[in-house]
Amino acid sequence: MAKQIFINLAVKDLAKSVELYTALGFTINPQFSDDSGKCMVWSESIFVMILTHEKFSGFATKPLADTKTKLAGLFSLSLDSVDEMNDRMAKGLKAGGIEPHEMKDYGFMQQRSIEDFDGHTWELFFMDMSKFPQGQNN
Fold first, then answer.
1. pLDDT of 9-61, one tens digit each?
2. 136 domain-assigned
3. Which of 13, 38, 72, 95 has its CA 20 to 30 A from that of 53?
4. How many angstroms separate the CA atoms of 20 and 17, rounded?
């Protein structure tokens, strides 16, 4: 079986969160979804489980963090072009996401950030390795 990653996030409003994640380009896998959580698919091996606080708490061993006021992690999604990045951002903002700062341009990579309703931060980016500075191994 191919390796997969499942990111689990606690959300307060499941329906609004589904709308936002769908606007960003995720699809729903109904096999792993119910009324208390949705499996949002990014690719064949990357999934985001958005779970109600009640459902998430059933798996948690610590109190839930307030991700509206404290950063718990940064999640990055690669896209195929700057246009796709801007299109996904526009759709995500229209669905209620918040852009905490302006786009960052690193020359070889452009990046925009969007926060969901619970403050989870996603970085959408396009990277063109042909523009990566020669001689750098960061």
1. 999 999 999 999 999 999 999 999 999 999 999 999 999 999 999 999 999 99
2. no
3. 95
4. 5
